[in-house]
UniProtKB/TrEMBL annotation:
Cofactor(s) required for function per UniProt: Mg(2+)
InterPro entries per record: Enolase-like_C_sf (IPR036849), Enolase-like_N (IPR029017), Enolase_C-like (IPR029065), L-fuconate_dehydratase (IPR034610), Mandel_Rmase/mucon_lact_enz_CS (IPR018110), Mandelate_racemase_C (IPR013342), Mandelate_racemase_N_dom (IPR013341), RHMD-like (IPR046945)
GO terms for MF: L-fuconate dehydratase activity; magnesium ion binding
Single Gene Ontology BP annotation: amino acid catabolic process
Entry EC no(s): 4.2.1.68
EC class (word): lyase
Protein name: L-fuconate dehydratase
Highest classification ranks of the organism: Eukaryota, Fungi, Dikarya, Basidiomycota, Agaricomycotina
Amino acid sequence: MPRRITHFETHDIRFPTSLTGDGSDAMNTDCDYSSAYVTIFTDGDEPLVGHGMTFTIGRGTDIVCQAIAALANRLVGLNPEDLFKNMGKAYDYVSADSQLRWIGPEKGVIHIAAGAVNNALWDMFARSRGKPLWKLVVDMTPEKLVDATVFRYITDALTPEEALAMLKAREEGKKEREAIVRKDGYPAYITSAGWLGYSDEKVARLTKEAVAAGFNHFKMKVGADLASDLRRGRVIRSIIDDPQFLLQGSQGLDPDSPALQGKNAGPTGAVLMIDANQIWDVPQAIQYVKDLSEIKPWFIEEPTAPDDILGHAAIRRALKPYGIGVATGEHAHNRMVFKQLLQADAIDVCQIDSCRLAGVSEVLSVLLLAAKFGVPVCPHAGGVGLCEYVVHLSAIDYIAISGTMERNVLEFADHLHEHFLYPSSINSKGRYNVPLNPAEGYSIEMHKQSIAEYEWPNGSYWMNRRNNGN
Ligand SMILES: [Mg+2]
């Protein structure tokens, strides 16, 4: 008897990060990093399990869990092997309920819920083959990988045939690239030093720690107050540009090296990025970032509304003479938005989100689009579970799709990793370790104890807090 998907569970898990200011930025002032989490089960002598989640920041996680249940329900009774045969079709099936489609389509709550479900299926697929997710994908033939990708609505920019030709061209050197990234890790940058809610002292301390840990790309939140942004930016630059704080024995990077071209690197090769989390209108964004040009950022991230493709293009044109680029994507709600950002020359850096896009299948579409347009992908990972996810996606991009990681940097935020069975980690050179455990799938399985403690509203943490009157 083939296995069937029998049932699923959802969990609304909220961590009280608003108490410490972790994750605070110009728009999101009191985030409780949260996870709308789903586990899918099969029957059989050796039953399979798949874990998935999408990231949220507190209130509303219950709504996402309801949407996840509505979509996951479509999978009950199906044979998972039929889904694994063509993961692009599996994506279409989950997102094509003709009534649920009305509350999207492919955007908002229903889409991030589809992301959790698609990611859970990929996790189950990888576990069933005894491989971490990235390895499952890079071992696929180009034909299989094209089948796993969503092409609907993007064929004006990229057809399956073109994607196949790109992937075939990348076959050469795949083994070498896999060996390199396993050994050296994937380049990372750190955001944890520059949250808006931190004092200057805390920013300085965390920046020094990050430099000592081997990082050379740093990101700071901006947009609430120009004077304060300039002050914090100077604090960070004064540390990252000063050789005395470098990792013992490190000379820093050559600011003229190809990897740092156009990044406004300082004398030690350190790069600063700034992130406004959508706070400005277009003219305001241009003026504000010009006023910050003395701190020499590589790019401004999310300068305006995430749906405003032409607005991003206008900001990019206006900032070009200042040598400052534009990055966005963590709130780009589907592959069509990325397609247009690329077609409109609106971005220098493509910041996919592992669960705002509806899972690995749609991420593959955007990785392929970005490779075609020659724009580096630097995934968003400021949140819970996102670092665990994105290292897989960047490894896929490097090994099988773009073939390069020289200019890429993957976000790392040092929060909440202890809740995962297979937490992401950084090596002594400030780079992500590639996940190697054959049992870890997509690395998103959470400890049962963490779920019991932080499930909203009746987990032990939240019960205790209520009982203590706050
Ligand atoms: Mg951001």
